[in-house]
């Protein structure tokens, strides 16, 4: 337990202040796993003949970490897609609830709107938070990698290792590794500008290129969703306008990461963005939101192949689809014909006028004619 507390408090903030670092303590298990995956991929790549001290070997190890983390998040991503679909489906109902309590600012009205909204979420098995699960789970891993790479320089200069798997020898090896022979994986763009080591211009060019590519990949991913994968109903209202605006604002948040994060973290983030873009493209192409532009394009592609989607979303031959649609139409017409016709209610004044026009049918009695005298 003492060793655990030592490793948890051996972050720069804790060692500088001499106190207990709760964030470092919470991230310790994740940092242990991050080091394990990095070292495992590094050992595997070295085993197949790559140079153990090469920057490319460590870069590929970081990419391997991305693959492991994102593959583990696939079930959560599927859940996120389903949750987003349900949120889009219930968007009109949520809008009705908002319209119902529009302009009502008293406490009781706000509580009633909140109860009805939560009941709608519960009924449909979704919530706004479930759409954020993948990124919420991934962020601790990201910060763990940031912590591991940020301590490389200090540990190497002190001839120490990481928390477990990064031995002093591997830490020194990572510290000396350079991408393309010039860019240190533990250095940030800000640090490179300050120290200006040999070949710093190439390092700056690499970092700026990665930041531009990160912005482009993030923009492409968000634009796919907004332009192709939203139903007409979802394109209405303030939420769509905010989402459209965030397409152009959010990617530039990576400018901050590109300046202050180590090159290894930037490579992790960029690779993760590429994974997200490809994953989102495949989802939009093969499981688009019903009613969206992407859904229409998919139906057109299936139609060219003589196929279509049935009521349950399964791909079936076109002849079966036509037969199914005909059957559904006949069932709908039969149900409509069998439904009892609703009699229009008549007001008292209108009934009185009708009785004056037709005395033989007084109000409240059916239209039977009076018997003629014999």
TrEMBL record:
<dbReference type="GO" id="GO:0032977">
    <property type="term" value="F:membrane insertase activity"/>
</dbReference>
<comment type="subunit">
    <text>Interacts with the Sec translocase complex via SecD. Specifically interacts with transmembrane segments of nascent integral membrane proteins during membrane integration.</text>
</comment>
<feature type="transmembrane region" description="Helical">
    <location>
        <begin position="128"/>
        <end position="149"/>
    </location>
</feature>
<feature type="transmembrane region" description="Helical">
    <location>
        <begin position="56"/>
        <end position="78"/>
    </location>
</feature>
<keyword id="KW-0812">Transmembrane</keyword>
<keyword id="KW-0143">Chaperone</keyword>
<keyword id="KW-0653">Protein transport</keyword>
<comment type="similarity">
    <text>Belongs to the OXA1/ALB3/YidC family. Type 1 subfamily.</text>
</comment>
<keyword id="KW-0472">Membrane</keyword>
<feature type="transmembrane region" description="Helical">
    <location>
        <begin position="202"/>
        <end position="226"/>
    </location>
</feature>
<dbReference type="GO" id="GO:0015031">
    <property type="term" value="P:protein transport"/>
</dbReference>
<keyword id="KW-1003">Cell membrane</keyword>
<comment type="function">
    <text>Required for the insertion and/or proper folding and/or complex formation of integral membrane proteins into the membrane. Involved in integration of membrane proteins that insert both dependently and independently of the Sec translocase complex, as well as at least some lipoproteins. Aids folding of multispanning membrane proteins.</text>
</comment>
<dbReference type="InterPro" id="IPR028055">
    <property type="entry name" value="YidC/Oxa/ALB_C"/>
</dbReference>
<feature type="transmembrane region" description="Helical">
    <location>
        <begin position="247"/>
        <end position="270"/>
    </location>
</feature>
<keyword id="KW-0813">Transport</keyword>
<dbReference type="InterPro" id="IPR001708">
    <property type="entry name" value="YidC/ALB3/OXA1/COX18"/>
</dbReference>
<dbReference type="GO" id="GO:0005886">
    <property type="term" value="C:plasma membrane"/>
</dbReference>
<protein>
    <recommendedName>
        <fullName>Membrane protein insertase YidC</fullName>
    </recommendedName>
</protein>
<feature type="region of interest" description="Disordered">
    <location>
        <begin position="333"/>
        <end position="374"/>
    </location>
</feature>
<feature type="domain" description="Membrane insertase YidC/Oxa/ALB C-terminal">
    <location>
        <begin position="58"/>
        <end position="284"/>
    </location>
</feature>
<feature type="compositionally biased region" description="Low complexity">
    <location>
        <begin position="335"/>
        <end position="345"/>
    </location>
</feature>
<feature type="transmembrane region" description="Helical">
    <location>
        <begin position="32"/>
        <end position="50"/>
    </location>
</feature>
<dbReference type="GO" id="GO:0051205">
    <property type="term" value="P:protein insertion into membrane"/>
</dbReference>
<dbReference type="Pfam" id="PF02096">
    <property type="entry name" value="60KD_IMP"/>
</dbReference>
<dbReference type="InterPro" id="IPR047196">
    <property type="entry name" value="YidC_ALB_C"/>
</dbReference>
<keyword id="KW-1133">Transmembrane helix</keyword>
């Amino acid at each position: 337990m003492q060793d655990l507390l030592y490793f948890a408090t051996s972050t720069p903030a804790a060692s500088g202040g001499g106190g207990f670092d709760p964030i470092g303590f919470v991230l310790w298990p994740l940092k242990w796993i991050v080091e394990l995956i990095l070292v495992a991929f590094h050992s595997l790549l070295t085993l197949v003949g790559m140079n153990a001290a090469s920057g490319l070997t460590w870069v590929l190890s970081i990419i391997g970490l991305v693959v492991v983390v994102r593959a583990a998040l696939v079930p959560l991503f599927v859940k996120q897609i389903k949750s987003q679909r349900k949120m889009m489906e219930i968007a009109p109902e949520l809008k009705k609830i908002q319209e119902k309590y529009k302009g009502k600012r008293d406490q009781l009205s706000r509580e009633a709107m909140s109860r009805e909204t939560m009941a709608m979420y519960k009924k449909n098995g979704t919530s706004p938070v479930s759409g954020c699960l993948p990124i919420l789970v991934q962020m601790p891993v990201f910060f763990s990698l940031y912590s591991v790479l940020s301590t490389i320089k200090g540990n190497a200069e002190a001839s120490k290792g990481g928390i477990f798997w990064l031995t002093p020898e591997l830490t020194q090896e990572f510290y000396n590794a350079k991408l393309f022979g010039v860019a240190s994986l533990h250095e940030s763009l800000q640090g490179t500008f300050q120290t200006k080591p040999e070949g710093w211009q190439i390092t700056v060019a690499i970092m700026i290129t990665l930041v531009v590519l990160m912005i482009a990949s993030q923009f492409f991913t968000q634009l796919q969703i907004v332009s192709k994968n939203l139903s007409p109903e979802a394109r209405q209202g303030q939420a769509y306008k905010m989402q459209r605006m965030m397409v152009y604002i959010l990617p530039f948040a990576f400018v901050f990461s590109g300046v202050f994060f180590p090159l290894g973290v930037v490579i992790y983030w960029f690779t993760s963005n590429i994974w997200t873009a490809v994953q989102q493209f495949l989802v939009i192409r093969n499981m688009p939101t019903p009613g969206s532009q992407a859904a229409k394009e998919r139906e057109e592609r299936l139609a060219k192949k003589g196929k279509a989607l049935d009521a349950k979303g399964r791909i079936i031959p076109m002849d079966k689809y036509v037969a199914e649609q005909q059957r559904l139409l006949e069932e709908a017409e039969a149900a409509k014909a069998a439904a009892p016709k609703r009699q229009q209610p008549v007001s008292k004044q209108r009934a009185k006028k009708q009785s004056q026009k037709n005395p033989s049918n007084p109000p409240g009695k059916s239209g039977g004619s009076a018997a003629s005298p014999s």
